[in-house]
Design goal:
Blueprint lengths: L20 H9 L4 H9 L16 H10 L3 H4 L5 E3 L6 E4 L11 H7 L4 E4 L15 E4 L13 E3 L2 E6 L6 E7 L19 H8 L7 E3 L17 E7 L1 E2 L11 E7 L4 E9 L5 E6 L10 E4 L7 E6 L5 E6 L1 E6 L6 E5 L2 E3 L6 E2 L3 H18 L6 E4 L29 E4 L8 H9 L4 E6 L5 H11 L3 E9 L7 H10 L3 E3 L1 H6 L1
């Protein structure tokens, strides 16, 4: 019998909503989708890319059919909304697993002993219907992306900058009307948040989120999800003045966010040919470097920035911006600001965030160190390898996480896994005659492992806080704890540390 082993013991099922097979096949044949072509060639598919279909061809029932192997008439999910059997005047939001009458395939996979992650599957995935420890489920009830409803702390904004505008102004929920690229928005009717978008957010917290089934307009029913209102803002566009680092010829405008509570100054910058093609957003005119930059016709990388809530509190969020339009003489510019999502939101995560647990433990250990007059040192990691996609300089992946308590300026950067490869760090510990180290961090199997090994090799005393280290593969942590001990490190739980 022929026996063979696959190249990996992992399987990724990637779904793309609304991906028409005929159009996809056409684009592949024309060379316009080279990555899809690679996937097809490495896998298995009919030439026309078609599969056995079902009806109705709407997101929730079809994704539920994919996950259960049952038709809509069996699993019971027939659209974005199902009529409430107890109250015919209401529609119940159907991206809700409690309404599904068939079992999802991932339950069986997890219960057979295989670790399974269901990431934003938009059909009967949330809330989880199995409590098996092998199963992790993230969101799946909010069109768009993870945390689209529950994590949103500031909504989208279309910004128009023009010399014709006399005052920077924020206009909430200006509507979904066709504004037209380059127009100046004024005197728009304010629209209420759609009932459908609110139900989508509510579904993360409670089953049975609903809207009234009384159709007076399209917004009253399931089309409300596709017809959400957005905020607008406008600003004067003028020559840059009062900046610390404004290049010659730069123009300035201001982005008004958070219902008018937050302002971010921006520069419109020229390229070498003298054409305006870049927008840089700053925290203030005095800042040395921008929060982010974006080229014309593109969206920026995701960046972190604070959001101000109505009560004055501030929260760190992730968002991006797009430079979407300018007219021929650059007298009108449109900037699209995407939603700001709370990076700590875990309302639709199961199990709840290990990240938060680790951070809480680390912050408790930092408090202990401060109370006991122990020096606290932070070490960042940057990847200098060509073509790298992680830990790149000036990206959020190379920064300390925002929830981490910062109590000192002892922040060093390393470029290899071993912390002793940072010359500045080595000079600091020698100068301050530091001999004992309490170690926290990630990754347990790479950076923590290498640093512990080399610290012990250099005859330092090393204490590893066992509940303050983590890894991409948590199964490796017990093995790594044994490794640390084998090299002479002492393991200690942060809770035991606090008792001392």
């Amino acid at each position: 019998m022929l026996r063979s082993k696959g190249l990996t013991d992992k399987v990724l099922l990637l779904g793309i909503d609304g991906m028409d097979p005929r159009f996809s096949r056409k684009m592949v044949d024309e060379g316009k989708m080279p990555n899809l072509k690679k996937i097809i060639e490495k896998g298995s598919a009919r030439h026309d890319l078609r599969m056995l279909g079902a009806v109705p061809t709407i997101t929730p029932p079809m994704w539920t059919t994919l996950s259960t192997g049952a038709y809509a008439s069996t699993h019971g999910i027939t659209g974005f909304w199902n009529v409430d059997p107890q109250d015919r005047s209401k529609l119940i939001y159907a991206l809700d697993s409690t309404m599904c009458k068939a079992e999802q395939v991932w339950n069986g996979i997890a219960e057979s002993g295989l670790r399974t992650l269901v990431w934003h599957w938009p059909g009967s995935s949330w809330p989880p219907t199995s409590d098996n420890p092998n199963l992790a489920v993230v969101d799946g009830v909010q069109p768009g992306y993870v945390g689209f409803g529950t994590g949103m702390r500031d909504d989208e904004v279309l910004v128009t900058a023009s010399p014709k505008v006399t005052e920077a102004k924020f206009m909430p929920k200006a509507g979904t009307s066709n504004t037209g690229a380059g127009c100046i928005l004024s005197d728009l009717d304010i629209k209420e948040e759609s009932a459908g978008s609110q139900a989508a957010a509510d579904a993360c917290q409670n089953a049975g989120a609903s809207v009234e089934n009384i159709m007076l307009t399209l917004e009253d029913g399931e089309f409300s999800i596709e017809n959400m209102p957005f905020n607008t803002a406008q600003s004067p566009l003028k020559d840059a003045e009062g900046w610390t680092n404004a290049p010659e010829g730069a123009k300035e405008f201001v982005v008004v966010l958070c219902n008018g509570l937050l302002r971010r100054p921006c520069l419109l910058l020229k390229n070498e040919a003298g054409d305006y093609d870049t927008i840089a957003m700053y925290k203030s005119k005095k800042a040395d470097a921008p929060i982010t930059t974006v080229k014309y016709g593109e969206f920026s990388p995701i960046f972190l920035d604070e959001v101000i809530k109505e009560d004055g509190s501030r929260i760190m969020c992730a968002r991006d911006i797009g430079y979407v339009y300018h007219d021929d003489d650059y007298t009108t510019v449109n900037l699209w600001i995407n939603r700001a999502n709370d990076i700590t939101d875990d309302a639709a995560w199961h199990p709840k965030s290990l990240h938060k647990e680790i951070i809480d433990n680390v912050n408790s250990a930092i408090n202990w160190a401060v109370e006991n007059d122990i020096c606290v040192i932070y070490i960042k990691h940057e990847n200098l390898s060509a073509g790298t996609r992680t830990f790149k300089h000036n990206t959020r992946g190379a920064e300390l996480v925002s929830e981490l308590k910062i109590v000192s300026d002892n922040i060093f950067t390393k470029y290899k896994s071993n912390m002793l490869t940072s010359a500045e760090f080595v000079d600091f510990i020698k100068k301050n005659e530091i001999t004992d180290f309490y170690i926290t961090g990630a990754d347990a199997a790479i950076c923590v492992k290498s640093s512990c090994f080399n610290l012990r090799k250099a005859n330092y005393n090393v204490f590893v806080l066992s509940d303050c280290v983590t890894s991409y593969d948590k199964k490796q942590i017990p093995e790594m704890l044994k490794y640390y001990q084998s090299k002479g490190c002492i393991l200690i739980d942060s809770k035991e540390l606090l008792k001392k």
